[in-house]
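chain below, 279 aa
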Amino acid sequence: MGKNGEKTSARRVLILAGLIAISTQLTPATQVQPRRLPSEFGDAKDPKQAYMLIENLAKEAVALDRNLGRIRVSIANGVLLYDFAPAPDSSLASRPARLTRPLEILIRTEAVGRDLRLCMPSQQFWVSRLEQLRGLAAKMVEAAYDAASEDEWLSRKQVYEAEVETKFADLAKQLLAYADKSRLDARASRGSVQGYRVEIRVDPPKAHVKYMPFLNYKRCTAFNLSPNDYWLDLDVGTRTLIGKYHYIAEWPPSLNGPEEGNFEITGEVKILRFHPKAN
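prediction:
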C-alpha cells in the first residue's frame, strides 16, 4: 500500500474512533427515562396492585359508610326499587384523582351485588353483568396508569364511563323484566341527595379543624400517601356534607389536643360541634 493509501486508512480509523467516542458520550443523555407515575398511586406500582387495593376499599366503604353503602336494590310490599346513581365525587375524595371513578364503580357494584343476593338469591341473571362492571373498572385503572397526559386520561375515562352506564342501564332492563315476570311493580329511586346543610361550630373559636372524606383517609393508608396533601379546612359556618369523614381538631395539648376522629353526616345531623373533650 502506498503512502497515500496509508494516510487515507489512518484518517478513516480516526474518524471512526471519533464517532464511537461521540456516540458513547451521548448514549446516557439520550436514554429514555422511565415515565414517572402520578403521586396519587403511592406504593402501588402497577394497575393490578392498585385494583386490588381499591377493590378492598370499596368493600370497606359499603360496610362502613351508610351513604356509600346505602341500599341499592330492595323488594317490599310488591315493589322492586333500584338505585344505580353514582356517588358524588365530594363523598369519595377531597380532590380530583384518577382512581376515584373506578373506585366509585366498584362501590356501586359491591352494594348492588350485596342487595341482589339478599333480594333474589336464586337468580343468576345479574352475576355476569356485575363481573363486566368490575372488568371495566379494572380497565379504567389500567388507563389511569398508562395515560401519558391528563387529556389522554380524561378521554379514555369518558369512554369507559359511558360503557359503565350502559351496563347499569342493561341491568335495570333485566330487573324490570324480572319484576314483570314476578308480578312486581318496579321503579328507579331518586338516589342519594348530593349533601345536607350542616352548621359547623368550633369552640374555642380560633381552633383549626381540617377534614377529608373517610374513604380518602383510608386510601391514604392503603396507598401510603401523605394525608397532608388531602386535608380540607372545616371553617365555622354552613357546609354541605354527606357521608363519613375523618378529621383533626388542632387545639393545644392543655385542652387535650390535637384530637383526631371520624364523624358521619346524615339527614338527621343539623349542627356539628367541635370542642375539647374533658379529661
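Helices lie at 3-30, 47-64, 100-119, 127-146, 150-181, 214-223. The beta strands are 73-76, 79-82, 185-188, 196-202, 208-213, 232-233, 237-241, 243-250, 259-265, 271-274.
thats it, cya
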